[in-house]
Design goal:
40% of the residues lie in helices and 21% in strands. It has 15 helices and 16 strands. α3 links the parallel β12 and β13. The structure holds adenosine-5'-diphosphate, magnesium ion and zinc ion (ZN). Zinc ion (ZN) binds next to loops.
Length: 480
């Protein structure tokens, strides 16, 4: 029996951060009382007409450009027909034959190598409502419908079947999520369902080009669950193939409690939906000038930022990957490097000490009690030798607890004066002010040396580093 490999393609649904719904003016606010954000359009009353939300189109174009996809000058909204109580019109407005965007990719680093996953298409559609049960569907005597979600703008991003392992799938999702959040088009919240993923998976003999029969796995609400569900599903399919079973194309549900996938239904096919162009909507025509304008407004994306960090700061790929995971973290790092020009030292402190501590406390970088400027100032003190590496850890603790300025902590703690130039300045002044003892010392009176040491200690309230004082004093007294 030849070795089998997994083939995975992901379909992501992202709720777009618009103020109003996809085809009507209802609010998109999350968590409002049921059915308070509806109107005749999103409730599918007869005779109403949908109007395309310009901002939703802009979000999708931004995403298309960031994922290196084409933007169609002309695309078509279609009706996808099916009946379910959360879909009052009995069709979903989506895009089918001519989507807004096609053919791009996401590139990311995994285990030290670059992985590229093709993007098959990006299209716009509307979300359905939500069924609410008392307890589970099976226990519940009745189901209630909340139409607040009905008609929310959704962007579907379909990957090519280029993913080969559950780890790659999870990393693809992390990258995609980071990009959407960077762009400000989606809040990326998987638990609240604004970033959802269906995973298509099949297995085939290594070296085979033809795709195997796939299962579509649904109902995973975290990256970890996607990974676990895929691990389970791949094991299940490999076992079935090895036992000579025929796999069928089907939709399966991930059960997070039992950590298994269960068959929900045999897969529906596109012709079951009887797609046709929506006669209520004109073709969506996108002017090139608008696309150009959006392209110019794009922020620097994680992928480009990661490459720039490696180039500009000469830090390892690994560090760059961690530090560009979010825009806030990347901005923190860059501010810290501006305050202390040793990028690798800053990277170590941010990744190990700061992120370690924040993680432990369940905090985000935006909630860091230590500002990047102050962390940089503290690292400056270390570099100057004003504080030791050991003291730096103590300073860090104090700063983390109180947000204090490291210079203040140094003053209060009465840290040693170890700055050569500073000590030299003090000594030069003292020597100039005492020509008598200087002459005595130069005339051979050794004990005059101690007189000067005493003067320096008096002037610095005992804080000058004694070894440094002896060294410099000798040099100056001997006329150096
Ligand atoms: P469907 O019509 O069932 O939705 P699509 O062809 O639109 O199927 O593909 C949906 C997703 O499934 C895409 O991400 C695609 O890459 C992936 N996919 C398609 N065929 C396979 C397969 N045999 N194995 C794994 N993934 C697949
Ligand atoms: Mg599909
Ligand atoms: Zn509405």
């Amino acid at each position: 029996m030849p070795e089998l490999e997994a083939v995975i393609g992901l379909e992501v649904h992202a709720e777009l951060l618009t103020r109003s719904k996809m085809f009507c003016g209802c609010s998109t606010k999350f968590g409002e009382p049921p059915n308070t954000q509806t109107c005749p359009i999103c409730l599918g009353m007869p005779g109403v007409l949908p109007v395309i939300n310009r901002r939703a189109v802009e979000c999708a174009i931004k995403t298309a450009l960031a994922l290196h996809c084409s933007v169609a000058r002309r695309s078509i909204f279609a009706r996808k027909n099916y009946y379910y109580p959360d879909l009052p019109k009995a069709y979903q407005i989506s895009q089918y034959e001519l989507p807004l965007s096609e053919r791009g990719f996401i590139a990311f680093m995994l285990d030290g190598t670059e992985k590229r996953v093709g993007i098959h298409r990006i299209h716009l559609e509307e979300d359905a409502g939500k069924l609410v049960h008392a307890g589970t569907l099976e226990e519940s005597e009745s189901s209630l419908v909340d139409y607040n979600r009905c008609g929310l703008p959704l962007m579907e991003i379909v990957s090519e079947p280029d993913i080969r392992s559950p780890e790659e799938a999870a990393e693809y999702l992390r990258q995609l999520r980071a990009i959407l959040v960077f762009l400000g088009v989606c809040d990326g919240n998987m638990e609240e369902g604004s970033f959802r993923c269906d995973a298509n998976v099949s297995v085939r003999p290594v070296g085979e080009q033809k795709l195997g029969v796939k299962a579509e796995v649904k109902n995973m609400n975290s990256f970890k669950n996607v990974q676990k569900a895929l691990e389970y599903e791949i094991r299940r399919q490999i076992k079935a193939v090895k036992e000579g079973e025929d796999l069928i194309q089907e939709t399966r549900l991930w059960n997070a409690d039992q950590e298994i996938t269960l068959s929900m239904r045999s897969k529906e096919f596109a012709h079951d939906y009887r797609y046709f162009p929506d006669p209520d909507l004109l073709p969506l025509v996108v002017e090139q000038t608008w696309v150009d304008e959006i392209r110019r407004s794009l922020p620097e994306l994680p992928e480009a930022k990661r490459a720039r960090f490696v180039r500009e700061y000469e830090i390892p790929e690994y560090d760059a990957g961690v530090l560009t995971a979010s825009q806030e973290l990347a901005a923190y790092y860059e501010a810290c490097v501006r305050a202390h020009r040793d990028p690798k030292v800053v990277s170590n402190w941010v990744m190990v000490e700061l992120l370690g501590r924040l993680n432990k406390d369940g905090k985000e970088i935006a909630q860091s009690p230590i500002s990047p400027e102050r962390l940089g100032a503290m690292l400056d003190l270390v570099a100057k030798g004003a504080i030791s590496g050991k003291m730096a850890k103590e300073f860090f603790d104090t700063m983390y607890a109180s947000g204090a300025d490291p210079a203040e902590i140094l003053k209060k703690s009465g840290g040693q004066i170890t700055d050569t130039a500073q000590v030299e300045g003090i000594i030069a002044e003292i020597v100039a002010a005492h020509p008598g003892p200087l002459a005595e010392y130069r005339g051979g009176k050794e004990s005059a040396f101690n007189f000067f040491v005493g003067q320096v200690m008096k002037a610095t309230k005992g804080k000058a580093n004694p070894k440094l004082v002896t060294e410099i004093l000798k040099k100056i007294l001997q006329g150096g």
